[in-house]
Amino acid sequence: MARTVGVEEELLLVDARSGEPRAVADAVLDGGPWSRELVAELQQQQLELNSSPCATLDQLREELRAWRRRAAGLARSEGVAVAALGTSPVAVPPRLTPRGRYRRMAQAFGLTAQETLTCGCHVHVGVESDEEGVAVVDRIRPWLPPLLALSSNSPLWQGADTGYASYRYQVFGRWPTAGPTRGFGSAEGYRAAVSRLLATGILIDQGMLYFDARLSAKFPTVEVRVCDVCPEYQDAVVLAALVRGLVETAAREWADGRPAPDDDLALLRLASWRASRSGLDGALLDPRTFRPAGAHDVVETLVAHVEDALKDAGDLYTVRAGIDRLTSQGSGARRQREVYARGGGTAVLRDAVRRTAA
User: Fold this and answer.
1) How many alpha carbons lie under 13 Å from residue 275 in its C-beta half-sphere?
2) What pLDDT digit, counting tens, does each position of 114-160 carry?
3) Which three-class secondary structure state does DSSP give residue 285?
4) Coiled-coil region(s) at which residues (predicted)?
5) Are 33 and 55 in contact (CB under 8 A)?
6) Second-level CATH architecture of 5-356
7) What's the pTM?
8) What backbone phi and psi angles, to 5 degrees, belong to 298?
């Protein structure tokens, strides 16, 4: 049986007429029984939706579609809409969600917390133990930058083109634990590393371990956090399938006694930066050699790496169709730039609203 897979998506709340982000998350969520599926986030201009653990991609697809529509319906009651964008394409002052934890984060991290209005996509895949989970985290590290490139959907920031396909990744990188990690070696090594980080007193709690991939503190899963939120839910399903394939492939390598790659952390950071800068419209670094290669070739290398796991889960067709669509049409970043050139940031927001709940 295939591993369970679940997705968290962060969405912007925008004015239904002007398209500008609106700080109304508390009003949108007020009184609704959405304690797990729809929740507030760091800023009042966004909310988060959560799928359940799904056994099949069909189930995940239906859940994401349903919860996006439910979020859109709740937002509509407050005169706003939801938009799946990694960053706001128009200038907006973020407004912090008035919660104890978020207030503590703002006090501890100042402008970093105040300016962080970004929307990501987090994929959870079930693992059988912490030991297996850490073995997976250690082995998937070089394969995460291609996922970032595929999901890149945040080229615009405060009304300007940043030159990056995923500027969300750059903004989020200001948090002290964000980004790729070294190998941990074992569950004991992972727990020891986490304990050392928490003992510094800098982090509010374990939830602030913003690694690109980590063990979930709440669920028996590996959580991959590197991706931008996808403009369409079908693309999020493709990413989820690839992450599940990576987890299964890594777990099999560990079970077979194959060692984790001993990749230099500096190279992993460069690969992530390259993916954030170029997306699918330039060179990436090959996960096996860390030499430049075309984005299409790197994506094909990723698919080939997890192909057996995709076949066994019945996911290969979905992934192939999704990859063909993304590599031919481009990522969300390319679409945003095309719309921005025609109508500016508000046009990008309106276009995103149409695509988010389509």
Assistant:
1) 32
2) 999 999 999 999 999 999 999 999 999 999 999 999 999 999 999 99
3) strand
4) none
5) no
6) 2-Layer Sandwich (3.30)
7) 0.96
8) -65, -40
